[in-house]
Amino acid sequence: MENRPDYIKHRLEKLEALRGEGINPYPYRFDKTHGSTEILSGFEKLAGDGTKVKFAGRVLSLRGHGKTLFAHLGDDDGRLQIYARKDILGDNFSLFKNIDIGDFLGVEGTVFKTKTEEITIKVETAEILAKSLRPLPEKWHGLQDKELRYRRRYLDLIANPEIKELFIKRAMVIKEIRKFLEERGFVEVETPVLQPVYGGAAARPFVTHHNALDLDLYLRIADELYLKRLIIGGFEKVYEIAKDFRNEGMDKYHNPEFTMLEFYWAYADYNDLMDLLEKMYRHLARTIAGSETLLFGNHEIDFNRPFAVIPFFEGITRICGFEIINMTEEELSKLAERFEIKTEGLKGRGDYFDAFFSHFVEPHLIQPTFVKDYPIELSPLAKVHRDDPRLAERFELFVSGVEFGNAFSELNDPQDQRHRMEAQSELMERGHEEAHPVDEDFIFALEHGMPPTAGYGIGIDRVVMLLTNSPSIRDIIFFPTMKPEE
């Protein structure tokens, strides 16, 4: 106790004082009968009937005047004032000398309005429910330190109650996505998080080890290959909302652990998906943001009008003035140097195509836009384009220059799939950290036949950012990945 700061020592003394009076400062339960919103909205009836209410919450303010005391308690819904008097509580009033801001308190009493018209509980009995040993941060009611808010989200939720509403909206987004898909016949499923072979995305995995099997396993980077196995097995519409993990850098749109939505639809192609996604995003804007027009960053985004559709290479040519689809890797490298595009770490034509697209096209895609017909080199799991073998039937949705999902007419030719995976394996040998290994088990499954299928994947966190106009993914993840504290 000697090494504790004085403010903790003071609270520990109060803790021991409570125990010395035979009071358990951490009781097992409290029979809460009413929440703050219920009391505030039902005041007239509760006051008229003289109904006793039992209310509990965290102490947010305390002010005493000798034998009387006012306090505010905060609960799941909001906050409510209580009023305690010694002549009503008797010996129980002494409890309050050992109460601090941050403690949890339960009270019972009747409701009334003060002279200032504030609805208040007149306390008849009081009980401590949890003694707080650490005070809330200084100026806790306006906690602004971003680092502290992300690292200690519980303090952020206490200090900035509006943050809670943001996370409630996040839950609503997931609920509405489930509702939208299930109304259209999709079945929610679960697939393995630990996988012997990673795949389904261009990303570097986290590696772990299973001791009993003496086997290295990977935290999944995508759900795709297992969901396709279910299509092979006879499911026609499946989806999964689950955690995926990518061993990559962090920025305002990326966190190593994130929530992914993927769904697969047998007998459909990427054109069908464009129609479905327009409807889904329009529905989410209307139900979550309250309007089909919303603000994201500095842009007003209109989900009500038809989404634009732009072919991948056409978009590049339109802005940079060059047809690059038939260029060699060496030619692409020279052209990139001319336009001062960073080429460090780029391996293969696909990487160069992607760099040109990111540099020239992405910043201009403000209103909802489907960019379709990607180069085959960038799409190892997508079906070859029916009209041009240099392309894949793939699209990505962009809003405000940010990608909001990746979709394919899924590759279901096992021989072509093997060839594509082997090409990826060659890139791995060249040092490409995000290329796929060959997944023999998936190819074996594909050899049993998979019907024409369309598939789509999107990080839920990014969708929540869009619908709540949040500037960083860390704002809408309860506990984002952070550097260790020094």
Could you characterize what this model shows?
The protein is of the alpha+beta class and 486 residues long. 33% of the residues lie in helices and 26% in strands. The protein contains 15 helices and 18 strands. Helix 7 packs antiparallel against helix 9, helix 7 packs across helix 15 and helix 11 runs parallel beside helix 12. The chain is elongated. The mean pLDDT is 93.
Secondary-structure map with pairings?
Elements: H1 6-20, H2 36-41, H3 43-49, E1 53-65, E2 68-74, E3 79-85, H4 86-89, E4 104-113, E5 119-130, H5 146-151, H6 153-159, H7 162-182, E6 187-188, E7 194-195, E8 206-210, E9 215-219, H8 224-233, E10 237-245, E11 257-266, H9 270-289, E12 293-296, E13 299-302, E14 308-311, H10 312-320, H11 329-338, H12 349-360, E15 369-375, E16 391-399, E17 402-409, H13 414-429, H14 440-446, E18 453-459, H15 460-468
Parallel strand pairs: 3-5, 6-10, 14-15
Antiparallel strand pairs: 1-2, 1-4, 2-3, 4-5, 7-9, 8-9, 10-11, 11-18, 12-13, 15-16, 16-17, 17-18
Helix pairs in contact: 7-9, 7-15, 11-12, 13-14
